[in-house]
Amino acid sequence: MTIAVRPGSTVMFTGDSITDCQRLESEDGLGFGYPLRVAGEWGLKHPDRPMTWLNTAHAGDKVMDLEARWQTDVLDARPDVVSILVGVNDMGWHTLDPKGYVIPAEEFEAGYDRLLAPLAEAGTKLILIEPFLLPIHGVVEAGAALIGEEERKEWRTDLDPKIQVVRSLARKYGAHLPAADGMFAELAATTEPEYWAADGVHPTPAGHAALAAAWLRLVA
């Protein structure tokens, strides 16, 4: 089942750096990642149904950071469709930030639920993209931290319950769910995972194209 969008609808993307993708440096404010690809592909295929495309994502955001700005960044715009991708920083905050701590899945779920409740009440159509982590090899830098095999194993153990939270919330609110973690796992099984996300988190151009294609399959 797909989301039917009317001409003139406002579609908003929000989340962390994967969605932000240097949006403030781009001419149209969409950034250089999958939101731009989605808007471009839609415009090519549906010139008779123009949309307003917005991106309010912030690099480094966790659910608690989204919540702090939710009214001004999202609710005040009264979008018809909201697409959210968040969870990677909730997974790795304790590793990347000296002031960070392990965010329990229950805390992640409660905050995410508070984001969705007012949108559902307003009748907003929701797309919740699973957070994902690709099984890359070697050590990569993430700010001041070095992330290797052990850290990624720890992150995966932390992320899996949060993915289940997103799936559960999608069922609760009738949201559409691009299963990004599973999609990238399948892609990484036939091609080196670095091809899709060099650091395991931030997609390459091919990774952003895969996300955009998964997103567009849910909208008509």
Automatic annotation (TrEMBL):
Gene3D superfamilies given in the database record: SGNH hydrolase
One Pfam family per UniProt: Lipase_GDSL_2
Stretches assigned to the SGNH hydrolase-type esterase domain: 14-210
Protein's recorded name: GDSL-type esterase/lipase family protein
